[in-house]
Design goal:
Layout (H helix, E strand, L loop, with lengths): L2 E5 L1 E6 L15 E3 L12 E3 L28 H12 L3 E6 L2 H9 L10 H12 L3 E5 L5 H11 L3 E6 L4 H4 L3 H25 L4 E7 L14 E6 L2 E6 L7 H20 L2 E7 L1 E3 L25 H10 L4 E4 L5 E6 H13 L7 E6 L2 E4 H14 L6 E4 L17 H5 L8 H13 L28
Parallel strand pairs: 1-5, 1-7, 5-6, 7-8, 8-11, 11-15, 12-14, 13-17
Antiparallel strand pairs: 2-7, 2-8, 3-4, 9-10, 14-16
């Protein structure tokens, strides 16, 4: 049986005994999801321990109350992943400092879907499935805490979701830019040192972002590119063109992980994820207290989710600038599937593996057209407006990114069909009375970021 620890920094750690041979994957796993601050416990990590080698146990990582992690075991991707892995036979522990909920309070935001406390979420999951998810409240940027967690849990895999994940949030003001970089970069370094010191065979599964690549005028490869220059050839890391302090933190993470794989022999998989949409998974649909969060505001909401909410309340779809910005997208159900595949097929010792984690590419204008069509089927008259782009980015560009490695491992994508879009729109319609329309328009400008702390206007 394998143990998985998940922190709010999105770290999954399988136990040492998971790796019985190069070909053999784990039979089962214990998973612990936690917030990632200064310790590995704060990251959603997974411990994988082969059942024949040791009994199941849960390891949790505690973290301090520093505002370090936003997307961990209690977050959008982390919660869905924790339930999915628990259902698959992992024993899960969530380590989270719950700072994501604090961000909502600070900025006057709220999830479209009502979400109960993490304690009630976990109790409901056990009452339905009989499976226990342990909870440890703490911060992974606290290395002392992280160390104790590693020593007690002996993880074999860590899924690292525990990072501040919003580009707009990182561009509000100086303090949030610094917070984002400190939380994300230091937290990841702490995890790397914990693996080196306490669990050398541990596989790090790190949630990266397609935003590291930017929008180059050539095809985007999966992590590496072969270059011929002055008669010589080499395969090098694909050039990075980050477009916010958040995306820059991810670039720093990738460089630090690549270095430690080379220097210390760490095994790591970097999941460069595209834009995630949707809210439902098989597990979160089991009870209303298991609902995932659904962000629609201009700080944390992603494009398709925001458009569906705007359509539901009769607000014109807010296309930034020309609307030609093209990105990779994937369903939340594919996010959890990709993490599971990465854990089941670990990187080799010393290998820094990069997967581009998305299933389809759309421009903002294409998304708006799809939502308009889906709205018409439901009797909703959807309008579209162009608003000044708050970001500094190309609004018309070439974009062709490769994404074959996860497919080769067995990913079965949930593509954005009419029925799926109808489902997301129906969720938005169901909870439209919870929408705060004052939060729909963009409120953070890349060019107006300043020194003084800002509060988003109510």
């Amino acid at each position: 049986m394998a143990h998985l620890i998940s922190t709010s920094c999105s770290v999954s750690v399988p136990s040492r005994s998971q790796f019985c041979s190069k070909e053999q994957s784990f039979v089962g796993a214990k998973v612990s999801f936690a917030s990632f601050s200064s310790r590995i416990c704060g990251l959603p990590s997974k411990k994988l321990i082969h059942r024949q080698d040791r009994s199941q146990r849960v390891c949790t990582i505690h973290a301090t109350t520093l505002p370090l992690t936003e997307e961990g075991g209690d977050g959008y991707c982390g919660w869905a992943t924790a339930l999915h892995l628990s259902k698959k036979g992992y024993e899960v522990a969530i380590v989270d400092n719950l700072v994501r909920r604090n961000f909502d309070q600070q900025l006057g935001l709220d999830s479209l879907t009502p979400i109960v406390s993490i304690h009630n979420r976990i109790r409901r999951w056990k009452s339905i499935t009989g499976k226990t998810i342990e909870l440890y409240i703490g911060d992974v940027c606290d290395f002392e805490f992280l160390s104790e967690t590693f020593k007690s849990f002996e993880p074999t895999a860590v899924v690292h979701f525990g990072e501040q994940r919003s580009a707009p949030y990182s561009m509000i003001d100086r303090s949030r830019a610094v917070y984002t970089q400190h939380n994300n970069v230091i937290g990841t370094i702490n995890v790397l040192f914990a693996i080196k010191e306490y669990s050398e065979e541990c596989h790090l599964v790190k949630l990266g972002t397609m935003g590291e690549y930017g929008t180059p005028n050539i095809d985007i490869e999966e992590g590496y590119i072969t270059i011929n220059h002055n008669g010589r050839s080499d395969t090098l890391p694909y050039p990075k063109q980050a477009s916010s302090f958040y995306h820059l933190s991810k670039v720093h993470d990738s460089n630090n992980i690549a270095f430690t794989c080379k220097a210390w022999g760490i095994r790591a998989t970097d999941l460069n994820q595209g834009v995630v949409y949707g809210v439902r998974t098989d597990e979160t649909d089991m009870h209303e207290e298991l609902y995932n969060r659904f962000d629609y505001d201009g700080v944390f909401g992603t494009a398709l989710n925001r458009f569906c909410v705007q359509a539901a309340v009769g607000h014109p779809l807010t296309v930034y600038g020309k609307g030609g910005q093209t990105r990779g997208y994937l369903d939340i159900r594919d996010t959890v599937q990709c993490v599971e595949l990465a854990i089941a097929n670990p990187a080799q010792q010393g290998e820094f593996r990069v997967f581009n984690q998305f299933t389809e590419q759309f421009s903002v204008n294409e998304l708006a057209a799809l939502v308009t069509k889906a709205g018409a089927k439901l009797g909703i008259d959807v309008k579209t407006i162009s608003v000044p782009n708050p970001r500094v980015e190309a609004e018309e560009h070439y974009y062709n990114a490769k994404h074959t490695k996860l497919i080769e491992l067995g990913l079965q994508p949930h593509l954005l069909s009419d029925s799926l879009l109808d489902s997301v729109l129906n969720v938005a319609v169901k909870f439209k009375d919870r929408v705060d329309t004052k939060q729909i328009m963009p409120s953070v400008s890349w060019k107006k970021i300043g020194v003084k702390p800002k509060t988003i206007a109510a």
